[in-house]
Specification:
heterodimer, A: globular, B: 9 strands
Chain lengths: 136, 361
């Protein structure tokens, strides 16, 4: 009986601790998407769109920051959890505004997965008192 | 790549149904709670991708039996792996199958057996996510096997597969656009294929009326006085000057009041290239007197930034650079009053050589 209890406790702890790893995978994925967006904006600088090229560089930096935040989450850093959740909430708000306003934004499954489902999933993974207690 | 192939829409339904089934049934596995949440999530995602592939079999069965067979084998393998998550070699085999499935899709798209669409790209994103979740080492794992290899696999495979998928889909989409996509982001109005004599006359009439009406604007000062303003950067070879009053009024293909003028930015000042009519609402194509000669076009999925009103293209993953937003621009029709050897007087674009030649003169 005692062994079963210990086993259950170990399993419960084990289940809880895989949340940061799941969030890390999603943040890594998001940082790759940002990197692709940044790289794709750079060639427009060659055509004279200097602001777009600058935004491309900013986006690449942002991709790097997202990746570092992901590593911070993996290492259970409290600041990383806070930054990740803030970042994802902002992403969801921005995406919701873009999708709700009649500006012809793409509402396909890919955009919904990347811009809505992914940030929501990260927030869900990092949400809650139990998860927060994992972060030092 | 930004649209759903109607024949593939069933795949989305299949994936959604598979998700519900996976969430309801996989938890009944006796050892479901004995593996990390990342492994369980990867199993669920593998069932989803299996659902997409299996749902696509009926459509491909008649014309592509080999593809149908591959879908069947792929779907069955993913379902088998999804329930075999306690197997010792699970990670290795799951990672191998996921990588092979993504590469197989890219091969199919690359050689033209499949057109890139939202269902395909979304499924690949799910597979890459499943790959990451299957490989990521978890703190406190009972069996700490091959952690360094798994980290290496995760760090290399995920970025590489995403970049390869994006690049392949983008290149194929640009190199082999469908009949209604004349260049990146521009969707042509649907028309008849060969213009009738009446349509040729109507197009000619529209051209001459527009040319006569905008001739005064060859002096850009008059255009400025009429309310036209540069709509995007003047550092580029050409600039659209827009008249917001005419845009708001919603005049429909009125030669005397075109919503925009296009100027070449030459070293001796702006040179008038033509006019641009624009409809007020997205997806509302205007009247088409010249049939295929005067087909309107709508720019879709472009990323626009308020900084200098510059644009870029949305990635296949639905992202724009930070500070840019994804929009579609309502349908437009250009009337080029200078000779445009590539496409004629109503083409979507003016040939770059024409603009360059004007700059040299």
């Amino acid at each position: 009986m005692a062994t079963n209890d210990a086993g259950r406790a170990q399993i419960a702890d084990f289940n809880q601790t895989s949340r940061p790893e799941g969030a890390f995978v999603l943040l890594l994925l998001q940082s790759i998407f940002w990197a692709v967006a940044g790289l794709s904006a750079l060639p427009f600088g060659l055509a004279g769109e200097l602001h777009m090229a600058a935004l491309g560089l900013v986006t690449l930096m942002f991709a790097l920051v997202t990746c570092l935040v992901g590593i911070g989450v993996l290492w259970r850093r409290r600041w990383a959890r806070r930054v990740a959740m803030t970042l994802e909430v902002l992403c969801v708000i921005g995406s919701a505004l873009q999708l709700l306003f009649p500006i012809g934004a793409n509402r396909g499954p890919v955009a919904l997965l990347v811009d809505v489902a992914l940030p929501v999933a990260v927030v869900c993974l990092l949400w809650g008192k139990k998860t927060r207690s994992l972060f030092s | 790549m930004y649209n759903i192939n109607p024949e593939h829409a069933i795949g989305l339904i299949g994936g959604f149904v598979a998700l519900i089934i996976a969430l309801a049934t996989l938890r009944l596995h006796p050892r479901w709670r004995s593996v990390p949440g990342t492994v369980r999530a990867a199993s669920v995602l593998m069932v989803v991708t299996a659902g997409v592939h299996l749902a696509l079999i009926p459509h491909h069965l008649a014309h592509e039996p080999l593809t149908s067979l591959l879908f069947l084998l792929n779907g069955a393998a993913f379902i088998a792996l999804a329930v075999a998550f306690t197997w010792r070699h699970w990670r290795l085999v799951a990672a191998g199958l996921l990588v092979a499935t993504v590469l197989g899709y890219l091969l199919y798209v690359g050689i033209g057996l499949e057109g890139p669409d939202q269902v395909g790209i979304a499924t690949k994103l799910i597979e890459v996510t499943a790959l990451g979740l299957a490989l990521v080492p978890v703190r406190g794992e009972p069996r700490r096997t091959h952690r360094s290899w798994r980290w290496a696999g995760l760090g290399v495979a995920m970025p590489l597969l995403i970049v390869m998928t994006g690049a392949t889909v983008w290149i194929v989409d640009l190199a082999r656009p469908d009949a209604r996509h004349v260049h990146a982001g521009a969707l042509l109005q649907s028309t008849n294929t060969v213009p009738t004599p009446a349509q040729v006359d109507a197009a000619s009439r529209l051209y001459h009326e527009t040319k006569a009406a905008i001739q005064p604007y060859e002096d850009w000062h008059l255009a400025w006085a009429a309310g036209y303003r540069p709509g995007n950067s003047t550092n580029m070879p050409s600039t659209h000057w827009m008249n917001q009053r005419y845009v708001d009024a919603g005049y429909v293909m009125d030669p005397k009041r075109p919503q925009g003028l296009v100027y070449a930015n030459t070293h001796h000042g702006p040179v008038l290239l033509g006019a641009m009519f624009q409809m007020k609402g997205i997806n509302q194509f205007g009247p088409d007197p010249g049939g295929p000669l005067t087909a309107w076009h709508q720019h879709e999925n472009i990323c626009i930034t308020p900084f200098g009103f510059e644009f870029s293209l949305m990635t296949p993953f639905g992202n724009c650079a930070l500070g840019a937003i994804d929009i579609s621009v309502s349908p437009m029709l250009h009337v080029w009053i200078v000779d445009n050897p590539q496409g004629g007087p109503f083409a979507v674009d003016i040939a770059p050589s024409v603009v360059a030649a004007l700059d040299r003169t």
